[in-house]
Amino acid sequence: MIMKKLIHILVFVGLTFSATAQELNSHYLYEMNWFNVNPAFTGETDGIKAILNPGTQWVGIDGNPSNVMFGLHSKMNKNMAIGGKMVMDKRGIFSNFTGELMYKYKATIAKDHYVSFGITAGIYRTYLNVSTILEDKYTDATDPVATAQYYDKTHLLSSFGILYQFKGLELGVSSPHLVVSGKSVSDHLFGMGRYSFDVEELKLKITHSIVYQNLTDSPNQLDVGLKMMWEKTIWGKCTYKTNHTMIAAVGVNIEKVNVGYAYVMNQGAMSRISSGSHEVLMAFTFDKRAKSKREKQRSADGTKR
């Protein structure tokens, strides 16, 4: 009887934490994966871009959150782009799956001034990790709480994002999970700004960035970051977050391949129970134009023969 009550408490706490956690994007490599938080970044690079972005938080704590994102996006023409992404997020006894399709339209409002609008449509599923509960030898496997049918909800969802660009300046606002069927409209807003400039004599590109999140069930959060890239190849970034964490990230861009790693350093009480958080990002760009040129060349060679 005590165990049943304990499981019910765990489910309630897990549900509350899961709902809150969904308002927080657990990814830190915004510089390489803005697409994950704002659909207006869809198709910002030439060719087809594939992204794999796994991460784990609070290493050393049982049931610590883990997150894997996979995405694809590409331009359709000068003004439009499409994409899609899947995110598997595990937090304690709950798992969350999100699958979304993206569409972006980019408009020129003046010379060097652009505004992009991005929307998404997809599904959002939350379900209980039954195996996690049943690993406890004291748990009654016949308890309805410990069955997959007890909590398994799927919702339709939609997100929205805007991006303004002028030379080295970018300003964006997005609302992840703006509309989820059966729930009220989310007031979670994700605002970002960054400015890049070149230091030619040092072959450096320096980017200042700021990210602000208006959160529903948690204190609002501000991130301030500084990134330096040498010869468009090797980069490093430091970020301070107002939830008292520091992030150090490094990466390398080699032709069409981008790789990055981020380490989140805990401070205060959390540093005594967790060794921190880790995240990896791998991105590959496939050049559609290059393929088209090869096909045209082969066709021309065939005609000559």
Q: Which helices and strands, and how do they pair?
A:
Layout: H1 2-21, E1 48-56, E2 66-75, E3 80-91, E4 94-110, E5 113-128, H2 130-134, E6 152-166, E7 169-180, E8 189-199, E9 204-214, E10 221-230, E11 234-241, E12 245-254, E13 257-265, E14 277-286, H3 288-304
Antiparallel strand pairs: 1-2, 1-14, 2-3, 3-4, 4-5, 5-6, 6-7, 7-8, 8-9, 9-10, 10-11, 11-12, 12-13, 13-14
- Counting DSSP E segments of at least 2 residues, the number of strands comes to 14
The name of the CATH architecture is Beta Barrel
Structural class, from helix and strand content? Answer: mainly beta
CATH fold label: Porin
Which spans have pLDDT < 50 for at least 5 consecutive residues?
Answer: 1-24
CATH class: Mainly Beta
Q: How big is the Rg?
A: 22 Å
Strand content: over 45%
Q: What percentage of residues falls in helices of 4 or more residues?
A: 10-25%
Distance linking N and C termini: 84 Å
Count of alpha and pi helical runs? 3
Shape: globular
Mean pLDDT score, rounded? 81
Q: Identify the strand order in the major beta sheet.
A: 1-2-3-4-5-6-7-8-9-10-11-12-13-14
Summed up, the domain count is 1
Order of helices and strands: HEEEEEHEEEEEEEEEH
Characterize the largest beta sheet: strand count, sense, and whether it forms a barrel. Answer: 14 strands, antiparallel, barrel
